[in-house]
Amino acid sequence: MAAPVVNKTIDVVAKYQAEVNAAPNNAEAQTGLGWAFYGKRQYSEAARAFEAALAIDPNHLEARYGLALTYKASGARTNAITEFERVAALTEKIEDPVRQSMLHRHVKGHINLINTGDWNLGKKLGHA
b/e string for 78-91 if b means 16 or more Cβ within 10 A? Predict the structure, then answer.
């Protein structure tokens, strides 16, 4: 019988916590810990981990995106919008135009959803 997902998440938290304890200035480990807490809906802890990653590397795209989603999930709308806007600015540095466009569109959708309750992205799914 497979272990419940919650147990796997707890193991992930322990894994990343051990990595953070061993190397507190490792932005990747801090980001991983943030995602582990986010997956458990422990948003305060997730925010602290993502913020720790960003203190190490303010341009860490994944940590910035995780913090934006964490703020959104916890109802901190203004903070979420601010972080999504920062993510949008960071997407300009992505060299792959398809990846850049997809992430920018996704961020715009989150901001629209917070502001209007609708993604407001139309039906276009392809990339130019």
Answer: ebbbebbebbbebb
